[in-house]
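User: Structure please.
Assistant: Input sequence and predicted structure:
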Amino acid sequence: MKQDIEQIAFLRALRRLARALDLHSGRINRDSGLTLPQLIVLTCIRDLGSATGRAIALAADLSPPTVVGILDKLESKGLIVRHRSEEDRRSVHARLTARGADFLDRVPAPMGDGFARGLSALPAPERARMLADLERLVAMTGAPTVSNDEAGKN
């Protein structure tokens, strides 16, 4: 019985977090015209530099076909450009445009300013511990990740 109560408490907290994410995602979409997955992909491209779709998919934890569709949309908005690799002409890389970099400089914090301020106010070891705990919770649900899916294909 106690275990059921604890699980329900976790579920309620996770549901509140999911609801907050949904609300902020909708606000970002209204304000910027991008969905949260599109914003994540754009941020991954900034962080990776010039990167292949597969590398972006792994960094964003999205499927490669989903990333291709997102890259199409980001390219049509002028936020990224795609180009063939000089080393391997079969590889296509994406990189930010100046417009994409400017967009990321101006976009609001994905979870809101309060969350961003609160998170940055925490000491680095506490932020790392919170992230590790969150990753553990996700792993306990058995939720698949792109990196696990990709690892299973090798």
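DSSP finds eight helices and three strands in the chain.
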